[in-house]
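Sorry to interrupt, but I need a hand with the structure work. Could you add the entry underneath, on a fresh line?
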Amino acid sequence: MELIRKLRDQIAQPLGRMNVTARFVVVVLACIVIGGLIFWICNELIYYYLARSYAEELADAYDLNAGTTRAILWASFAAIVVLAGYSFSFSKQKRRIGYAGLFALVIGHSLLVGRMDPNFRRGVAERCYVMTRTSIKILNRAGIDPETGRECRPLTPQIVEKVAEYRKGHRPTQISSSDPTFFDPTTGEPVVWYSKNDRGQIQLFDLMGFHPQTGDELVPVTRDIVETWKQQNAKLVRRVPLLIPDAEKFGFFDPTTGAAKVWYWRNETGQYEFYDGPGFHPRSGDQFQIVTRDVISEWRQQQEVIAARKKAEQEQREKEARERAEREAQLAREAAERDRLARDAAADDLRKRQQSGNDCDRLAANPTDARRTSDGVPFDALKRQADQAYEACSKAVATFPAELRYQYQLGRAAHFKDKKQAFEIFSHLVQANYPAAFDNLGGMYLWDRKDAATAITLFKRGSSLDDADSMVSLVDLIDKGMIALPNPAQTKLALLHRAAELGHAGAQRGYELEVQKANEERVNQVNQQQMMQLFGAFIQGVARR
């Protein structure tokens, strides 16, 4: 106050020395200056707050920080001041520039703010959404949609996320949890929708939309609805859910109410398990979810894929079985063909071996051998075919090494080719008591080795085994006086008779000759006796005379 009084005194002193006219002029000029200054300050303040309003709107629209907002504020303030100055200029061109600049500034600001079209302004939802049967409509004013007559509900941040999910193709799924989150913990906005059936039962869903069975629009929950649902849920009797082996047969929905009566669990591989009540999986602890038409459709598609895969696998198994059967049949045919060829080869080999035996029998058999299988070849005839007989019997012995007959016949043929081999063969056969070999070995001892005693011993052993040749050989030695006997004639006759019975042709002829000779001797003896008797009678008669 003191300062103002001093200032007033300093101003009043000069004015007091002026006349009235001068003082009036000074006061008027001072008022003009002070008024102009006040006008300029007010004008600048208007420009500043106008620029600040623009800057704040842009900051709200684009969520700008404080530094960027102040920069836009001062830039807008400077532009408005300059353009406003041009608008009041005495220059027509500058006024045009000023008007155009201010007009462009206002339009540009409106376009920048309008491009953002924000859902919220200062925390209050300015837009809303309306559910239709085909999509979600976004409106700029809350209230009733004039086209659908449905309520346009506020488009809160949580709803914006749900709308985005809906537009991506997600549809409401019934919530089976016994303790779901009904409201967003940050904003308190409802994040669960509900529908109430004819019996007053509340069903909860995780997204806006329409009930999948009734088609009624789902409504955001309220606190009263939450309390009612909790009371309803508390009345449910809790039990252990049972696995449903055949969901199609069990049925997914109640036929009277259309409500879902099946819950499901899906494992890591995407396979479904269905249960007849809510609960938790005993192995994983996952909570069961109630089925929806989308889940059922996906499960059925999965079943079709599984059935198709099983069918393909079955067809593949059948194909592999057919191919395996064909391979086995082919292998069986090949094995049968190999067996047939083997049998044919064995049969052919057997025929060849049998043929070699037949040839041996045909070319070298002894006519007097009791074990022969053919007519046989006399020793003289065998000499002419000894080579063929030796080759055939060698094959027969190699083929049938246990058959003594072929060894004997090989020995007979070897007698004309290799007597040492023949001697060894006959010696082996004598040890094996082959009857026909005794005569052959005895003959080799008698004629080749000049050992009559051994020969006679062998002939006797052969005779004891019913070898006709050995018997005939003994008869021959008796005739030659090489065997001393008390009654040689009777022995010869007995040997020839037995040999003849065994089929020896020479013995048969010899026996007949011996019998004839014996008969002739008996006749001669009778005649001689008669003649002696006649001669004696005659002599006696002569004497009496």
